[in-house]
Amino acid sequence: MQYKMVTVRKILVPDEMPDFIARQIDYLQGERQLDLFSSLIYLMSWKRNTWIHDEDHQEMFAIAWLYGYERV
């Protein structure tokens, strides 16, 4: 069986999100796929809360969490 290497382009997220994602990854000790959505409990900022409630942003957040991100 042949495997093809896939390169994923890093997603752009708003300025508030990279620090939050990094803190959550550290807090959860790398258990990204298991605890991604449980980390949303810690979204205390109204701006982040409003941003994450958009369905497209939820997908963007998940992709950034798993594959990396860059600041907008």
Automatic annotation (TrEMBL):
Protein name as it appears in the record: Uncharacterized protein
Phylogenetic placement of the source organism: Bacteria, Bacillati, Bacillota, Bacilli, Lactobacillales
